[in-house]
Amino acid sequence: MPLPPLPDMIDQAHGRKPADLVLKGGRVLDLVTGDLLDGDVAICGGMIVGTCASYEGRETIDVSGKVLVPGFIDTHLHIESSLVTPFEFDRCVGPHGVTTAICDPHEIANVAGIEGIRYFLDASAHTLMDIKVQLSSCVPSTEMETAGARLEAEDLVPYRDHPAVIGLAEFMNYPGVIHKDPGAMAKLEAFRGRHIDGHAPLVSGLDLNAYLSAGIRTEHEATSAGEALEKLRKGMRILIREGSVSKDLHALHPLITERNSPYIAFCTDDRNPLDIAEHGHLDHMIRTAIALGAEPLAVYRAASLSAAEAFGLKDRGLIAPGRRADIVVLDDLAECRAELVICSGVRLTPEAFAARRTVPPVARGSVRPPEISARSFRTAGNRPETPVIGILPGKIITEHLVERIEPVDGDKQPDIARDLVKIAVIERHGKNGNIATGFVRGFNLKAGAIASTVCHDHHNIAVVGVDYEDMALAANRLKELEGGFVVTRAGGVVAELALPIAGLMSLAPFEQVKSELILLRDAARGLGVTLEEPFLQLAFLALPVIPHLKVTDHGMVDVDQFMIVP
Predict the structure, then answer these.
(1) CA distance linking residue 27 with residue 34, whole number of Å
(2) Considering just the CA atoms, what is the radius of gyration of the chain in Å?
(3) Interstrand relation of 165-171 and 195-198 (parallel, antiparallel or unpaired)
């Protein structure tokens, strides 16, 4: 919404004219002092112009007995991981109190390049929530993968001054930063002085000093209090993450104190509509953090004011004159159930969502794998000692296991008794048709197969299974669907979800996506799967940036984790 005329704001603030909208009778949580302030909230256009006073308005909403807090800010997420378009994401999480989303369209960019980023920039002009865009810094994430696109510094610079752009998104190639890779340096130089988001799991000591010296100021990959504390002590703002797979809030909640809260914010990174429907979004993080014992003032600061300050968004984060009218009306601070959400002065109602303009989807027909047969999943090798990916529930980092698997007729086969399941990644961008196979432990799969085109960060096809025919059926079905999730068993498709926008997002309303995810989850459990989020867990098993890597003095990488890339 454009800014209202300054004379109107001043007149309405002073009470010389009725405010456009008045919220009357509630109490405002002041995130500076922690006080609950009595008085009306006056709004002119999309801006707050008055608090702590009595106002008349052209329109009045009675919020007596309620508490008003600033709108929540998700500081790092990939909207694609919600599996719906930006417009459906807006409609899905806005009613949970999220009024600003700082997104990295990294996933669609790795499929469709700059076209994918433009799609999000165009969409941001029409959503009710304010979608800010960080330009994807690592497409591809590393040279170890086959992605659908490549973006260099010169591809990003033309969008640097777009009104929706904050800066450069998570810099995943931290070895490239530490050892001054020319491509990484070009991007860092191009965005020097602007916000650069980080991604440096387990990086510490001199490596962390070097990484931060490049101007990187925020990061969401800390998974332990010790790791987060070192980064805080070195001036890095910690974005505590609670997604559908990566769940760090329980480990990091002791850091959410009044002292630390100016340097703490919240993010979801990757969260799907089923989790949002069953548990919530940032409101879930707020409820959980308070229930774990974190101070409510520190929690609500992290959810809005500290987040706004971290990303230079000086116009929001407080309910105060001169700030955006991003307001969440609650019955109780600890419960954090939004009863009314106002974003830039607009009430988030079904009618308001229906009145929005939308933009056409992009990146259709992007799933172009080779034809897959059961033989595609054979794993040759003479040595019985076999690397195995060990899943750590609730984390995207994995264990490097070694198991003895004897070849049978030239093939190392799945072993259900030991939970050794076959995993394959199939190149689907039409570049080389490569197929890589290996083993994973942690799914507890007893039959059939599951497959996905959501496969961070290259988004090739990932498939796990114990039956090669079912694995082939699942992979080939993904091509027919233009991407998505598929569960197969005994030669048939048990459940599926089509994601035809870049193989990542559905064309359907989020309610339908949620319903289909329930069917998929039930189908996976019917195969014996015990993981809470098997599809997103599968998506991270081919992550090309390795958390457990060690960089030598000569810039070489010593890999201490097994992974699969095509």
Answers:
(1) 12
(2) 24
(3) parallel
Q: What is the DSSP string of 110-157?
A: HHHTHHHHHHHHHHHTT-SSEEEEEEP--SSSSTTS--S----HHHHG
Angle subtended by helix axes 86-93 and 510-526, to nearest 10: 90
Give the angle subtended at the CA of 478 by the CAs of 496 and 274, to the nearest 5°: 35
* Contact assessment for residue 156 and residue 189, using Cβ atoms and an 8 Å cutoff: no
The backbone torsions φ and ψ at residue 7, rounded to the nearest 5 degrees and listed phi first, read -60, -40
**Given the structure tokens 């302030």, which residue do they identify?**
37
Report the C-alpha gap between 300 and 483 in whole angstroms. 38
443/431 Cα distance (integer angstroms): 30
The candidate with the shortest Cα–Cα distance to 170, out of 115, 208, 133, is 133
Distance between CA atoms of residues 452 and 473, nearest Å = 12
Q: In a 3-state reduction of DSSP, which class is residue 275?
A: helix
Question: Which token pair is 501?
Answer: 């926008």
Which residues is 388 bridged to in the sheet?
A: 401
Residue 31, C-beta contacts closer than 8 angstroms, at least 6 positions apart: 69, 70, 297, 300, 301, 304, 305, 317, 318
Residue in this structure with the two tokens 């104190």, named with its chain if needed:
257
pLDDT 10s per residue in the chain (566 long)?
A: 789 999 999 999 999 999 999 999 999 999 999 999 999 999 999 999 999 999 999 999 999 999 999 999 999 999 999 999 999 999 999 999 999 999 999 999 999 999 999 999 999 999 999 999 999 999 998 778 899 999 999 999 999 999 999 999 999 999 999 999 999 999 999 999 999 999 999 999 999 999 999 999 999 999 999 999 999 999 999 999 999 888 999 999 999 999 999 999 999 999 999 999 999 999 999 999 999 999 999 999 999 999 999 999 999 999 999 999 999 999 999 999 999 999 999 999 999 999 999 999 999 999 999 989 999 999 988 889 999 999 988 777 788 899 999 999 999 999 999 999 999 999 999 999 999 999 999 999 999 999 999 998 899 999 999 999 999 999 999 999 999 999 999 999 999 999 999 999 999 999 999 999 999 999 999 999 999 889 988 988 876 533 333 333 333 233 333 344 45
Q: What DSSP letter does each residue of 548-559 carry, written as one string?
A: TEEE-TTS-EEE
What whole-number distance in Å separates Cα of residue 240 and Cα of residue 302? Answer: 9
- Residue type at position 60: T
Angle subtended at Cα 86 by Cα 74 and Cα 118, rounded to the nearest 5 degrees: 105
Which letter, b or e, does each residue of 132-161 get, where b requires 16 or more Cβ atoms within 10 Å of its Cβ?
bbbbbbbbbbbeebbbbbebebebbeeeee
Residue 192's Cα: distance from chain center in Å? 24
